[in-house]
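Question thread 4412

I'm putting together a teaching handout and wanted feedback from people who do this every day. The idea is simple: show students a protein as raw sequence, then show them the structure tokens that encode its fold, then repeat with a second protein so they can compare. Below is the first pair exactly as I plan to print it.
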Amino acid sequence: MVKIGNIELPDFPLLLAPMEDVSDPPFRRLCKLHGADLMYSEFISSEGLIRDAMKSRKKLDIFDYERPVGIQIFGGDEEAMSLSAKIVETVNPDIVDINFGCPVKKVVSKGAGAGVLKDVDLMVRLTKAVVNSTQLPVTVKTRLGWDVETINIEEVALRLQDAGIKALTIHARTRSQMYKGEADWEYISKIKQNPNIEIPIFGNGDIDSPEKALEYRQKYACDGMMIGRAAIGYPWIFNEIKHFFGTGEKLPEPTISDRLLAVKQHAEWSAEWKGERLGLIEMRQHYSNYFRGISHFKEFKTKFLQVLSLEEFYQLLVETEAFYQNKIEI
């Protein structure tokens, strides 16, 4: 068992990464259904929360069926982070997470996300501001460092632990790498070997198959893994990894029917949460991901991108399934 404060997780938990415009409640629900052990929200601007920005507030929506769930905040100002942690606490998540890893320019330029990697003292102050403002366990997601010359993750891990965090997720790339190149998990292994590290350390980066998950678990001895991009359009990855850990065997790939059911659930939950029209419009980014590598899907993609009602959507699902069952050998 792995513990984050008073939150109990199974041995070697699989976490769903906080991904902007992806990790919303409908997507989290689907990943939970397929084996994710801990979910995180999309990242939320501390400044946006304080200004009561509607988009930031909407990201605070959490539901009991997805617990345990953490809400992730980012920012570069201690007072704003402290206030936003108090706002987050009012919706009663299980965990407050701090984003010190987002590499995108609009976040970094505000001295937030991975921008804080350049100033470890500030990172510690921001962390303490959050820890001191909430009764909830605080976790952090970060990267190895700003660039290869300034990798400082071991110092960061120790100092954040001293500041009171209850778990640390490390995306094993630097900010300058963005999402390119290979993630270097050797640094995660080094931190796990440090006798002064007592909190759970979760690895993140490049886990895209059960085989790689098992290899990295054995090689780098982290306490669990966070999965991000590999779950987009493929929520089955969580249970596939767990099954492989337990049996050494791979589950069969999801069938067309499995894919259509996942799309149906995702769209229904999206429509329920956002309203039918907006929910279906925002589903447009997901259809291709669910059918990646499936022949002839282009013929249906255009139709999926045009539907604006659940009635049309259900009809298209029936049409798509009929086509694949009658025409294609999968």
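The second pair follows. I'd like the answer to focus on this one:
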Amino acid sequence: MADALTLGWRQYRLERRMFWRNPSAAFFNFLLPLLFLGGGGAILAGNQHELNRLIPAIAAMSVMSTTFTALAYNIVFLRERGVLKRIRGTPLPTGSYFGGVAANAVTNTALQIAIVVLAGKLIFGIGWPRDWPELIVFVLVGVVCLTALGVAFAHAIPNFESTAAYVNAVFLPVVFISFYVFDSKSAPGFLRQIAEALPLKPLIDGLYGAIVTGSGMGSHLDALAVIALWGVFGLFFAVRGFSWEQSRT
């Protein structure tokens, strides 16, 4: 166990170095949500009500970007370049490898959430989160859910060249629908049902309650249940469909 933890820690340190040495990955998976935050904050300056809704929405988007998007890209790249196959042939335990990868995603998410919360406090006048336990629970459940979905979705991507098309075909519509329904009371009923059934909108609701209203965990148990169900779905297909081999030669 001690050796596995040590190897997992080394893998985590390697993942951190690899992440920052890849400028495109660092931009799209880490800096892009912060650019949305800065742009949205500049447009909505002076409108405190809208700023209160912007912060949890960007926080939820950050969780999805650093887990679902990042892992879908990385796993397909490593699989199609034969890296996963070579890792499988080394003495490195599977749990240590995936532990390091998951810890890297969690670190990026924690940094994103910390930056968004600080920006809300210092720049946008929102104040500190009103319910820290609810914030922590929703972030953790969201990370597990979207990490599993990212790994599972990687199985559906046939090659690395098509990764951007596949990921954006999911990421962008989910973000658009979830943001629109969250911010608009006049959203069509069918669109609202779709958003409520997806994991991002319930995550935004939970973070909004934790950061802005402080309404408590009990007010968002249905949102937590939706995220948890997606997490179970993602874990099942992530484990069942995972392959160390290239999908084609």
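Top answer:
Good format. For the second protein you could add a caption like this: Residues 2-241 form one domain. The first helix runs from residue 2 to 20.
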